[in-house]
Every structure is written in structure tokens, then in C-alpha cells.
Amino acid sequence: MLTVWLNVASTPIQAVAQAIIVLTPGSVAETLIGIVGRKDKPLLVTGVTIAVLLLGALAGVLCRRSRWAGNAVVLAVTGLGAAAVVTGEGAAAVDLLPVVVGGLVWYAAQGWLVGYLEPRAAAAGPTASGPDRPATPVVPAEEGATRRGFLLRAGTIALAGAVVGLGSTFLGRSRQAVEASRKMLRLPATGGLVPKGAQVDVPGMPPWQTPDDTFYRIDTALVVPSIDPQQWRLRIHGMVDHPIELSYHDLLQRQITQAWVTICCVSNPVGGSLIGNAWWSGVRVADLLQEAGVRPGAAAVRQTSQDGWTCGTPIQALTDGRNAMLAVAMNGQPLPIEHGFPVRMIVPGLYGYVSATKWITDLEVTTFDRFAAYWTVRGWSATGPVKTESRVDVPRSGASVKAGAVRVGGSAWAQHTGIATVEYRLDGQPWQTAELGTVPDVDTWVQWAGTVQAPPGDHTVTVRATDRSGYAQTAVPRGVVPDGATGWDSVSFTAS
């Protein structure tokens, strides 16, 4: 509750979990994400919470034997939480208060509970004794009464915790207030019209336009930043002649550009779903950089998020005519908070880890040798152009279909290059050329469709794409590190 009252960005447990994310090597993080998928953050917070509870239990057990040992555990956990808080991005002295108060409350509650279980000396009164009759022993407090007293105290603490949690729910208005502001915005943005023929005629195909609620989300933010658009600011500085600072209102006063753009995560495996296509509205980055006056020799733009995440983007990709933008709207509405509200970066043709900064607050024009971005220091390459890829969406893996003519389909992409042809085959037979849906430009994915003759039995359909530069998608399988996966996608199904 104190975290909410003070408007601190994260709880001590969340701060520790965030520190674990920062310290985890890239290859380890990639492996874990591959295992648990989008549940990585909830599982991490749950794990930290369980660890804290177990340490609390350990401290209680140790206190029965030695108060100093139990208190040492409390002190160590409090110190760990404080270290995680102070090393977080934008940490202030007030952020430490919930950790300190939490440690003191833990210490006090532990002493109150454990102290009740310690043997209590009873006052010695007159006893009947004599040569043939030993003194009546002093009877300690009854075990049942001790247990009832302990449970009563434990119940009191649990009730207090529930009340505090309920109070936090009513007091936690920061995200609600930002969400209310977001819904009240009326932006100079329109809803994009899906091009006629973009959606191919194959039952079961996912939509060509990805809805907000199913659009993939990959970031390191354990606590999603809630930024009031009235408080948002963007700095453009570094190797420029005229540094710029923009408010949200300032940004919206500039010319708005809108486009269909498919963005993709470098962690997307062959045939994966970490890719989405949306109608984005925003301000062209090239125009802002021209206004700032980029100096000769500049080669990169270091992007920084509100939560401290960074990436490095080749300046050429921001100024070569593609529709790189500071997006303010997605599919005709203000950005969802989880997808970067109030402002995020969209750069066609680059993986998100080098371009798609959410909750963006800073653009520094510089060179690559002057900084280290979040993912590049963890083993990923510095530039990150999207690889030409394709996948099978229909039939689904393991599906059962009617034998005979079977419609198959999927998606292919080569953002900012464009797809020329897509080919598919059944069970290693000769390749067939797929039908392609229409696309507005080279910055979006394209849907493909075809028909195979599948007799009863088990089958495998495989797909490959060739982009407009003439590059044919390689069959060589490779993992996502350091610059994206390669290989042909295959799906097995049964015809009967």
C-alpha cells in the first residue's frame, strides 16, 4: 500500500524480479522464454514471491533457536530488495521507503509471533512440601492456549495484510488515470482499411490485420509504465545542431503519417507467432531529425524507454525514405498502454530489439561505438534487419482434415523488401507456386494460399519464400541468436 501511496513505480518484489531480468544472460533468457513463452514475467514474480515467503519461514524457524540468526535473514532480504530498488532506472530516495518499512514490519511481526511461542516463566508461589512430599512443580502455560494465541496473532497479521491489499486496489489509481486520459484522446488518426484481396480465401486463416488484443508483446518491463500524456517529453540530442524537446501536444501538431507496417521480434522462431501487422499513425522520424540537423559522422540513434530499456538503430533506416515513425496510434486508436502509450517507435524492416522502443522518451544521435544497447550486450547483433521468412497457418499442426483436395495457406514477410513468390509442397513433392494476397506496399506481410491433393494418411506441407531482391529463403535451420532464425516451416497433419 505504501508503494501506491508514494506512487513508486514498482514493489520491492517487482524490483528484485526486474533486477533478475537485467542480470540474466541473453542466451539464458532466450532459452527460458522459449520454454515458458509469454508466462515468463508472471512466473518470475511468482518465483520471487515464493522465495521471499520461504526465507520468511526460514527466519521464523531460526528465531526459535537464535533471534540473531532469524534477524540476519530479515536484514539480508531487506538489503537485497534495497539494492534492487536503488539500481533500477530512475530510482529516487523515496523508492527505498517501502523496502525499509517492509523490513521493519517483517521484523516486528516475526518477533511478535515467535515471542509468543517461547517458554514463559510462571510466577512461583507457595508450594506444599515436606519430607514425604516433594514441592509441586510450576505448570507452564498450556500448549493448547499457546497454539490458540499464536494462531490468533497470525490471523490478525493475515487480516491486516488483506486490508492493506484491498486498500491498495482502491488507491492504485495511476494506471486507471492514464487509461482514462488515453480513452478521452481524439487523435488525428484514421482506421486503416484492409486492402481488397489481402485476406486469402482459406478457412481458418488468421486475419491479415492483427487486432490489438492478440498482437504479440515482447519487452523487459515487469511493471508496464503508466505515462500521463500531459507529462510525456521526448529529447532529441547528441550529434545534432539543434537539440529538440517535444511534449505530446508538440508532437501531435506535426504532420501525421499513417501506414500498414508488419513488425517482428528477433525471438520469433521459424513458423512462430511473434509477428503482427497493424495500421500505425505517427510522425516521421526523418522529419524530426532533419529539423534537429544531424551532423556528419552520425551513424546511429540510441533510443531510450521510460523504463530504461535501450536500443541502437542505424540512422540510415530512419532517414532513407521508409515510413519510420514515432507512433501515437495503433489500428486507429491511441496506443494501448502495453504497446507503448503514449508514444513508441516503428521502423519497417528492422527487428524490434533494434528499433521498436515502447514508452520512448529519448533519442540520442550518435555512433554505435559510443554506447551499448540492452540486447546487443547480451549477444545479439547491432543492426537486426528482418530476415525473409514464411510460415504455414493452415492446416494447424496435428490437424485432421478430409482426404482429397486440401486448401493450405499462410503468411510470408520481407519487410521493406517485399515478397516476390511463395512456394509450397506436400511430402517432398515438387514445389508449387502459391497464390498471393494483395499488399499495400513492401512493409507488410502477405498471405499465400494453395491446394494439395492429400490421400488418407499422415502428411507434411512445407513453405519457402523468395523476396523482391531475389533472395530465396534458406532451408538451413538456425536459432534466433544473434540476428533471427532461419529455415523452412513445415506442418504435419492427417487426412482421412
Radius of gyration, whole Å: 30 Å
Total E-strand runs: 19
Average pLDDT value?
Answer: 83
Distance between the termini: 59 Å
Biggest beta sheet summary: 5 strands, mixed
The SSE order reads HHHHHHHHEEHEEHEEHEEEEEEEEEEEEE
Helical content class: 25-40%
| Cross-sheet strand order for the largest sheet | 2-1-10-5-6
Description:
By secondary structure, this protein is an alpha+beta fold. Helix content is 31%, strand content 23%. It has eleven helices and 19 strands. The strands form four sheets. A five-stranded mixed beta sheet has the order 2-1-10-5-6. Strands 3, 4, 7, 8 and 9 form a five-stranded antiparallel beta sheet that branches. A hairpin with a 5-residue loop joins strand 14 and strand 15. Helix 4 (40-65) crosses helix 6 and helix 5 runs antiparallel to helix 6 (97-117). The longest helix is centred in the N-terminal third of the chain and has 29 residues, at 143-171. The radius of gyration is 30 Å and the shape is globular. The chain starts with a helix and ends with a strand. The model is unreliable at 1-8, 120-131, 136-143 and 160-172 (pLDDT under 50).
What are the defining features of this structure?
496 residues; alpha+beta; 5-stranded mixed sheet; 5-stranded antiparallel sheet; 31% helix; globular; disordered N terminus
Compile the SSE list and pairings.
Layout: H1 2-5, H2 12-23, H3 26-36, H4 40-65, H5 67-86, H6 97-117, H7 143-171, H8 174-184, E1 233-238, E2 244-247, H9 248-252, E3 257-264, E4 275-284, H10 285-292, E5 300-305, E6 310-314, H11 315-319, E7 325-330, E8 333-334, E9 344-346, E10 360-366, E11 389-394, E12 400-401, E13 404-413, E14 419-426, E15 432-433, E16 435-436, E17 446-454, E18 457-467, E19 489-495
Parallel strand pairs: 1-10, 12-19
Antiparallel strand pairs: 1-2, 3-4, 4-7, 5-6, 5-10, 7-8, 7-9, 11-13, 13-17, 14-15, 14-18, 16-17, 18-19
